[in-house]
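Troubleshooting log. The previous structure file for this entry was overwritten by mistake, so regenerating from the original sequence record. Sequence copied from the archived sheet and checked twice against the printout by T.R.
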Amino acid sequence: MSAAGPSNYEVFNIRKPKTGQVTGVEGRVLNFNYYESIYSPMITGRLMIEDTGGTIENEKGLLSTIKDGMKITGFEEVSFKIATAFGDLNFTDYPLIVTGSPATKDESNRQTLILNLVSKTEMISSSKPLSRNYPESPISDTVQKILNKELKISEDKLDIEKTQNQDKIKGNHRGALDVIQKICKKSIPAEGKDPGYFFFETQDGFNFKSIDGLIKEGIKRFEDDATYASNHTYFYFGALVANLEKDINPNDFKVLIPPVIRRDEDQLQALRNGLYNVRIITKNSLTGEYKEEVKNLLSDTNLGEKQEKPVEDNVYFKTYAFHINPGENNPGVSDTILNNPANYVPQANMRYSLLHTQIVQIQIPCNVQLRAGQVIRLLLENITQSNKNEQIYNELRSGFYMICHLSHTFTPNNSFTSLTLLRDTRELYTSKK
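Regenerated output below.
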């Protein structure tokens, strides 16, 4: 089976929870899109179906379309299992939920409808806002408690990276997933110095991971697992590759269309955003102490070459000012400073900005083994009039990238995956820095 060819819909059902009515739509799917993103705490999808009106019976026993016969208005469950060259995309035990009445296009002999889908956990989170506050504890422990106790998510569906800092978390009558999203910026990894987490959902479950943790974990997988490395390495050349081995199709790992560069390095904007040196001012309202320092924000964890500082130590282009109120989160008299924003706001802003220094979009044959947040290796053809065999790849642009957004698209004729990739620094990664 070619990864870019048609995939097999083994299961594609729509179920009405109130009545238990189930309708199979395997042969009616025109297009299905599946989405993951490191910025999204939910999986989403978009299903397009063509219906000629002979699918199911309505209440009067007459043949009708799916939308009219099942009275689709939202909260219906869509379960599916799609067999591909790289395994199955299986959501039979965790169906996606229809968000509302589908958009339709009616003709005399057919109806085309589009269903917008979202993971069940998002629907639960939105319907049960958090009214309680969580006491001071490591942020990662609070995240685990919210997902376990409030959303009833099992441990095997959670991948939570420990944090070193503590905080009190307030529900403020927001959805559980929204509460966790808001505390990503103030979270500092237990094994790392750079604050900045992502909270997102993939096929495997929920992830609360730092930027540094995702980079380190991704590169380590490449170094330790040859199979993983081969399934996460993609090439861009101008021509197809001859298939000399029956069990391996090298074109399954070829970028299908020229990569699109959405953003590249802008040093002036980087300086304005405080990517290198910033001035940090703090004023303690209890003691009256005033502090001012110029701080270097360079990161030690990169996808490419080591980050270099283009400015002198005493030069800064951005200032952060914080008014510190000791004890404001504690009842009674207290001088405790809980999770000082001066310790995470400038560094987190730098880390998020740095990760988005380069943004590239590619389209590849469908690979359901990929996940948002994973690191892949992208090797781009070197353009030269010299002997290309001496340097096959463009070493400046080739290297490790992180998957920001991921979309699997299935049609009756093709299956492909679209990726938005992020990178903080240039050139091929080397472990010796």
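The first strand starts at residue 8 and ends at 16. Archived copy saved in two places this time.
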